[in-house]
Amino acid sequence: DCPGKEGTGGRKRNLTLLRNKLYMVQRRRTEPVVESTTTAGDHGSLRRSQSDRTEYGQKLQEKMAPQEVSSMPATPPQEGEEEVSRRMMARRVKIIAELIQTEKDYISDLDLCIKEVIQPLRNKQIARFDVDGLFSNIELVHQLSAKLLSLLEEATTDVEPSMQIIGEVFLQIKGPLEDTYKIYCYHHDDAHTMLEYYEKDEELKQHLRDCVQSLK
């Protein structure tokens, strides 16, 4: 700063330039450091993650590996295969049981729908209410589901799990299933449109409410 050659404005400009230069120098010094630190940190955490996974994999293999006893021969490999087969069979049994229970629940819901909704609406003989159009062939769906459940129970009751042949049941009923649900699905959109129309009519809507209330 040279007093006498510059006024106050000149000194301010010099200070501003000096600050900018110092800022740029400091930025050039710190940016590579920050970048390299961040990169090193990312790689460090990645290496730790891979190390943890490797250690976990080794421990898991040690736990699953057959334990050798000095007084007895090593566990034969076929025992490991038998254990895998046993677990798969247990899982298969659970899946089949869930399949049968799901079919039972579905039939129970269909029973309620037919007894508490369809039949009461038919008995009322409402001129503007097309019960068969609204519910399509749901009663045939109920009959077919009951047949499927009967075949599943027949294939599993008093039958060893390894002898339960479930695939044959579905192959046996495949044709009727396709024919029945083809009709139901074909009329589904029309039934939905019909229901929307009935819900706009207060009198018809009240009949539906009564059915829903009886279901509850």
TrEMBL record:
Protein name per UniProt: ARH38 factor
Species name for this entry?
A: Cisticola juncidis
Pfam families in alphabetical order: RhoGEF
Residues forming the DH domain are: 91-216
Enumerate composition-biased segments (Basic and acidic residues).
49-62
Q: Which domain of life is it from?
A: Eukaryota
The record's GO molecular-function terms, alphabetically, read: guanyl-nucleotide exchange factor activity
Give the matching InterPro entries. DBL_dom_sf, DH_dom, Dynamin-Rho_GEF
CC terms in the record's Gene Ontology section: cytoplasm
**Region annotation Disordered: where it falls in the sequence:** 26-84
